[in-house]
Design goal:
Strand order of the largest sheet: 1-2
Number of strands: 6
Largest sheet: 2 strands, antiparallel
Mean pLDDT: 89
Structural class: mainly alpha
Number of helices: 14
Order of helices and strands: HHHHEEHHHHEEHHHHEEHH
Distance between the termini: 51 Å
Shape: globular
Radius of gyration: 23 Å
Helix content: over 70%
Low-confidence stretches: none
């Protein structure tokens, strides 16, 4: 298979996943936010909070539908473009694919019931709220099933490889592997943070526009924004904790990926954490950069004596592309900015709360609200690119997984335009819901 075909196939899959993950993170975040606000409204007998939940649920339904469409396209790509993955491990990961289908059925069934029973006289508000929990359960279960498949590709488990064949298959061990748990607990808070931060940013721009128009609406939107930001801070802290777990996992089980991310060439203790720079010739780092002494060893094993394996321990044809280091640097820059703003937000919340109402603060929130989505995208780029050249680590290369019956170059670059059309249509549908809500409610979003 030619390099052009492999490149086209990777572009196709990368673009598809890049669009799909946006719909996924909102599809996972909105059920939680909708249920949370509905139950707050029930508890405090606050009709505006319930109406906010109802409004968000309409957008949630649209994004779930879009996520299903984009996810179905990706599922087809897995079988048509990358048949080598399923040919090798279909007996192991076939069941998680089936579980994902059942999980979606749970989500779709209860989502339909949830949407159909808003303001239904025969369904109490509390019963309606309980239905929302099943939407959360279905979406979360679906996310875990898909994450377990990706985790299996990063570190295959649940079988013995004897004589070039898979034997002694244990599907449950594959699904609930260490890698699955680590990826799941780290990705979910990131999704929640990204989705909630984006919604908070949209509310910030709404508050800026509505300040002089409708005082009651302004106060409600600002209250909603405050609750969302509180949730963002909690997700940020949880993401930091799970990131530490993920880093220690990489050091032990995927050392070549960590070595590429941090440009560690030689196995060593007292390994420094490298910030900035790009890989140069002869195992060098060029360009502006700094190295924090011992920091990588401490992060990898809580001790300066922790050994961090270097790239030179691996053959050149199995090393990940070293530009993952730059991807990581960009990601960490955005995380650092959000971290500093989170600390500033907490401080101002307790010491100078009026500053949070200023136009400058609202503009900053609106601008940085896209950072969460960028961080999620960069994180998945690190995970997928950092596994290269493997489609299934240590067993199937990307070239071996690629189809030999189709010329992927004929549509690999063109097909992502379909996702662009889907994205535009989704945005227009969401805008229609927002406009209808403005007309009926007098201003929210």
């Amino acid at each position: 298979m030619s390099d052009a075909s492999i490149h086209a196939a990777r572009v196709l899959m990368g673009d598809s996943l890049g669009f799909h993950i946006i719909f996924v993170l909102f599809g996972l975040t909105l059920p939680i936010l909708v249920s949370w606000f509905e139950w707050m409204g029930i508890r405090h007998k606050d009709g505006r909070l319930i109406e906010t939940a109802r409004f968000w649920s309409k957008i949630m339904a649209i994004l779930v539908i879009t996520g299903v469409i984009s996810g179905t396209i990706i599922a087809l790509q897995m079988s048509l473009v990358w048949p080598g993955i399923l040919k090798f491990g279909g007996d192991v990961i076939g069941l998680p694919f089936l579980f994902e289908t059942y999980a979606f059925l749970i989500e779709a069934t209860f989502l339909a019931l949830y949407m159909a029973t808003w303001k239904n006289a025969r369904v109490s508000q509390k019963l309606h709220g309980y239905i929302g929990f099943f939407v959360i359960f279905g979406s979360t279960l679906s996310a875990f099933a898909i994450t377990s498949i990706n985790a299996w590709m990063n570190l295959p488990a649940g079988f013995d490889f004897v004589g070039g064949k898979i034997q002694n298959i244990d599907v449950w061990k594959a699904i609930f592997s260490r890698t699955s748990i680590v990826e799941f607990i780290h990705s979910m808070p990131g999704y929640y943070l990204a989705g909630t931060l984006m919604i908070a940013g949209l509310y910030a721009f709404t508050v800026l526009r509505s300040h002089a128009k409708n005082r009651e609406s302004f106060d409600h939107e600002r209250r909603v924004m405050g609750k969302l930001l509180g949730f963002v801070v909690c997700c940020f802290v949880l993401s930091g904790i799970t990131a530490d777990i993920s880093g220690k996992y990489l050091a032990k089980y995927e050392p070549e990926k960590l070595a590429a991310i941090e440009l560690v060439y030689d196995t060593t203790t007292n390994a420094p954490l490298t910030v900035g720079g790009v890989p140069g010739d002869n195992n060098t780092i060029v360009g502006p950069h700094l190295q924090i002494p011992d920091a990588l060893s401490i992060l990898a094993g809580n001790s300066v004596d922790t050994t961090v394996q270097g790239l030179n321990d691996f053959s050149a044809d199995t090393r990940p592309p070293l530009y993952v280091h730059t991807i990581f640097d960009v990601k960490m820059t955005l995380i650092t900015i959000l971290g500093l703003l989170a600390v500033l937000y907490i401080g101002l919340h307790f010491l100078k709360p009026d500053y949070l109402k200023s136009r400058a603060a609202l503009w900053i929130l609106g601008v940085v609200s896209v950072f969460g989505i960028c961080i999620v995208e960069l994180g998945w780029m690190m995970t997928e690119i950092g596994r290269q050249p493997w489609a299934v680590r240590d067993y199937v290369t990307t070239a071996q997984a690629l189809t030999t019956t189709h010329d992927i170059t004929s549509f690999g670059y063109f097909f992502p335009l379909a996702y662009l059309v889907l994205f535009i249509v989704t945005i227009l549908a969401v805008r229609k819901v927002i406009h209808s809500n403005k007309t009926s409610q007098g201003g929210e979003l």
